[in-house]
Design goal:
By secondary structure, the protein is mainly alpha-helical. The chain contains three helices and no strands.
Length: about 100
């Protein structure tokens, strides 16, 4: 009886630490190799850099378009001439137009 009690105490004392170690190991492994772990951080930062570059390009394009719209609203003669030249360069199918720069 005494041996049985000491064995059951021994296992009872080891069960809680074993479960704790298993849970900590599981979450620790997920924190390193998981979808949102430390190793995925570098990939996410690279994707973020690409997206920020795309955003900067889109914002620059938007600013150019807003500037052209503002010039159109002011009836800018240079812009009207530029638009006319680009439209006139699209002549008939058998015509060839050479721009002067």
């Amino acid at each position: 009886m005494r041996i049985r009690r000491s064995v059951s105490r021994f296992f009872a004392v080891l069960v809680f630490p074993a479960i704790t170690v298993a849970v900590v190991s599981y979450f620790g492994a997920y924190a390193i190799w998981g979808n949102r772990g430390i190793l995925a951080l570098e990939d996410t930062q690279a994707k973020l850099g690409i997206r920020q570059q795309q955003l900067a390009e889109l914002q620059a394009g938007r600013q150019r378009l807003e500037h052209r719209i503002a010039l159109m609203a002011q009836d800018d003669p240079d812009l009207v001439e530029e638009l006319a030249r680009t439209r006139l360069m699209d002549g008939a199918p058998n015509q060839v137009a050479l721009p002067r720069h």
